[in-house]
Amino acid sequence: EREFVAPRTPEEETLAAVWAEVLGVARVGVTDNFFELGGDSILSIQAVSRARAAGLRIGSQDVFRHQTVADLAAAASLRTAAVPAPRRPKREGPAPLTPVQEWFFATHGPLRHFSMSMLLDLPHDLDERALEQALTALVARHPALRTRFVRSGDTWLQHPGAAPDGP
């Protein structure tokens, strides 16, 4: 039997906890082998899904390549470090349509019936200020919620509106 070696990094802690839960064992050390603990291909898919939900960047094939917590955590750490953070373009003013948007406007034109509305039945004790702050933050975070489509001659353009200052 292998000597227990406790997790040393956040990635190892996450994987050890996930493996213990998926495999139904009390504890998992960093040198323990997923398959020797009773893992199989189906359980590896469950483990990967839970590890991804916890923020680790691994795939099912990684469990077969890196069968211990230490090896898999190291692979996940390298992959996370190698992936640059996504950057949002800093484009001001109108932008051209995407191919799908161009198709939509060419096919359907400026029809108003694609707008969606709904009636909400809100509780009487709703904190209106909190709701306003949440909606303002949502609109500020997602430019698509502020975008307007304007026709200029034969060309459609999308104009992202300015982010709200706040309630």
What does this structure look like?
This protein is mostly helical and 167 residues long. It has 2 domains: 73 residues, ACP-like (Non-ribosomal Peptide Synthetase Peptidyl Carrier Protein, Chain A); 66 residues, no CATH class. Helix content is 43%, strand content 8%. It is built from 6 helices and 3 strands; from the N terminus they run ααααβααββ. It has a 3-stranded antiparallel sheet, with no helix packed on it. β2 and β3 form a beta hairpin. α1 packs across α2 and α1 packs across α4. The longest helix is centred in the first third of the chain and has 14 residues. The mean pLDDT is 84.
Can you summarize this structure?
This protein is 43% helix and 8% strand.
Helix content: 40-55%
How would you spell out the order of helices and strands?
A: HHHHEHHEE
Total number of strands: 3
Spatial strand order of the main sheet: 1-3-2
Q: Radius of gyration over alpha carbons?
A: 25 Å
Question: What is the CATH architecture descriptor of the largest domain?
Answer: Orthogonal Bundle
Overall shape: it is: elongated
Number of domains: 2
CATH homologous superfamily caption of the largest domain: ACP-like
**Strand count, sense and closure of the main sheet?**
3 strands, antiparallel
Low-confidence region ranges: none
Give the class-level CATH name of the largest domain: Mainly Alpha
Let me know the average pLDDT.
84
Predict the CATH topology of the largest domain. Answer: Non-ribosomal Peptide Synthetase Peptidyl Carrier Protein, Chain A
How would you classify the helix and strand content by structural class? mainly alpha
